[in-house]
Design a protein that fits this description.
Layout lengths: L1 H22 L5 E7 L18 H9 L1 E3 L2 E2 L4 H10 L3 H4 L27 H7 L3 E7 L20 E5 L14 E4 L2 E4 L6 H16 L6 E6 L24 H15 L24 H34 L6 E7 L39 H8 L11 H4 L3 E4 L8 E3 L3 E2 L3 H8 L8 E2 L2 E2 L25 E6 L2 E6 L2 E5 L6 E4 L15 H18 L12
Parallel strand pairs: 1-8, 1-9, 2-11, 3-12, 4-5, 4-8
Antiparallel strand pairs: 2-10, 5-6, 6-7, 9-10, 13-14, 15-16, 16-17, 17-18
Amino acid sequence: MRQHFISSLLFALFTVALHVQAQSDNRPNFLLIVTDDMGYTDLGAFGGYEIPTPNLDRLAWDGVRLTNFHAAPSCGPTRAMLMSGTGNHEAGLGSQLFNQLFVGEYGYEGFLQPRVATMPEVLQENGYNTMMSGKWHIGERDPSGRTLPSVYGFSRDYTLLRGADNHYGSIRDATYSEDGRVHRLEDPTYSTIRYTDKLLGFLEDHDGSTDPFFAVYAPTAPHWPLQYPPGWEERFTGAFDGGFDALCNERMAGALNENILPANASTASCNKEAGPWNTLPTQEQQSFIKAMEIYAAMVAHLDEDIGRILETLEQQGKMDNTWIIFMNDNGPQGGALDARLIGGRETSPINNSLTNLGKPDSWASVGQGWADASSSPYRNTKSSPYEGGMRVPAFIWHGSAVTSGSIDHQFLTLMDIMPTVLDIADIDPPQGNFKGRDILPIRGKSMVPLLASAPARIHDADEAIALDHSGNRMMVKGDWKIVQRPQQGWQLFNMIEDPMESHDLASQRTNLFSDMVAEFSGFAATRNYIEVSTAINQP
């Protein structure tokens, strides 16, 4: 009883401190970093020691690592949920790709809908200077062309409107928004450098302002096509010669060392979709090794550029008053090495020869084996409703308000970020009518209670959290999770005893299974989750 009282008192004092800070003239700033297609263990702080990521690692180790944090299975739905604090169907991204089945259907409009209020809109209305540099991907299919960052609350933006571009900018129909002006790319600067430079320019323009800022940095690296940052061609030569089986074992050992895996996670074998490394022909192995060397260079270079942002905040004296939230947008990209070519839209022929891989005119993906290695011990990769497709690395950092070195293992989703930011900023979540339009409620919950020295549970054990993306379905309730993929039956997993989702218990826990499927069906009916007959692969 006494311990409960002390914990409650500490949490109350922590919350009061946050609100006092928010109400002062020195309201908190926010930097939200959203990476693209990284693996669960790519960061050193999550077990990947062979790729140097010192800037992100420092923040993660000094902050609170969220080991059970979930995005959507693919890029666009993740961004819709992140910006709105609610589900991807509510926000209009029930499917990332066009399908005739979804035409005219609620929840499948394919671009951000006015029925949700966005995080930058709410912050902008409350005096925040809002800025974004990177991938938008939630307005590309709007026939009016008006679902732009500037329309949905960003004062400044430099954004790629679609899901991907050549990192040196060679796709003919890739468009960018710069402060609301849509244009084709004319600057061949490597994408990460360009996004970083633009955000630094926004921060420099804001320097001296008395208003707080909310900044989103959403680079496209290491999303395909795998292309070297300039001058990084030799950085990782030979680092991955052991193959993806060896890397998988190293990553799981690193994750155990970092204490980020659940107590019952099995690391005895890799959760693989690809075949064994030693069965591949030598030439194929060489191509895979080169692909991973490029991928590692993209990740390490990205961390270096994040260091430039952190250095700027330090120089401006704003680091101590800035909350930094990091997350990746979905599981790592699997598939074939040459998967996801955007046929007919490149400005020059593709040359994927071994000696040319990584150059501006090559176009490769990291491949299933490396994706398996960086998502293990969790099942599957990007596009999947299993943990490997949705459980992503995430952390929250603040110089003084977060307990350094904390690790939180409770189930969370990216819908929880918007209410967390608003809570820290002491802004009431929007309800009912916002800026003249009726809006849906936020589904996420504030994560502020887990930041206290005695962290509290965010989602109650009886709270069902259901999501769907193009027929890839899941619902979590307490310790249990049900999963369904197109043309497949439902499965039931105990996420405490079996976080790898290896043992389907649907036939053993029949009453629980039936109740959860029925609850999902009721939820799906109110959101118009449409069943699909075939799998839709998402880029």
